[in-house]
Amino acid sequence: MRLDTTDGRPHRMPAVYVITHTASGRRYVGSTTRLSSRLSYHRSTARGRVTTSSTLIALMRRDGLAAFTVEVLEYVPEPGRLLEREAWWCDALGGLDRRRGLNDQHPKRAPLHSPLTEAQRTVARLAYLNGRLRVTDLAALYGLSTPMMTRYLRDLPKRGLVRSRLAHRRPLR
Q1: Which tens digit of pLDDT belongs to each residue from 15-65?
Q2: Rounded to the nearest 10 degrees, what angle do helices 135-142 and 118-129 cross at?
Q3: What SS3 string covers the chain?
Q4: Distance CA 50, CA 34 (A)
């Protein structure tokens, strides 16, 4: 499973992608804000490092990664529209159709697959840094897993928001 990098686009851009099983033509439509990280996750999950009941991963484990191709369908400059575009592509390519697709859930109904907008991330970071909310509270508020919220908060120093408060905060829980 290898992504064609000849288009020269950065793999850190938000994108909608499709993973195709070459033997059957069945497709999985996904989206991510960091394509290279997401593909690494699919690879490690297929190798058995993560427990899952995904149709895609079951097929990857059975046939091997070499039986799949990856293609970027669309780069999405606005991360807030990523889920909307993934849903459109999933519907267009029949991602939920058992004969043509490998998606288990419709993107708009997947609870842990909704990225935060930049404004939501900023509010979450400030609430955490000011001691108003814990990581678990923020995760529940935005409908994300605690590890995902922790990742958003750890990006804080790179983004340059209120760095001086980091020295006085407890480590992320």
Answers
A1: 999 999 999 999 999 998 888 888 888 888 888 766 666 788 889 889 988
A2: 150
A3: CCECCCCCCCCCCCEEEEEEECCCCCEEEEEECCHHHHHHHHHHHHCCCCCCCCHHHHHHHHHCHHHEEEEEEEECCCHHHHHHHHHHHHHHHCCCCCCCECCCCCHHHCCCCCCCCHHHHHHHHHHHHCCCCCHHHHHHHHCCCHHHHHHHHHCHHHHCCCHHHHHHCCCCC
A4: 19
Distances (CA, A) of 46 to 2, 4, 36, 40: 14, 20, 15, 10
User: Can you read off the two tokens belonging to residue 29?
Assistant: 């439509």
Q: What is the pLDDT of residue 159?
A: 44
Distances in Å between the Cα of 40 and the Cα atoms of 11, 44, 84, 99 are 12, 6, 23, 26
CATH architecture of structural domain 15-109: 3-Layer(aba) Sandwich (3.40)
pTM: 0.59
Q: For residue range 128-171, what is the model confidence (pLDDT) as tens digits?
A: 878 878 888 887 777 666 777 777 776 554 444 444 444 444 55
Cβ atoms of 173 and 134 closer than 8 Å: yes
Amino acid at position 157, single letter: P
Task: Categorise residue 8: left if φ over 0, alpha if ψ from -120 to 50, beta otherwise.
Answer: left
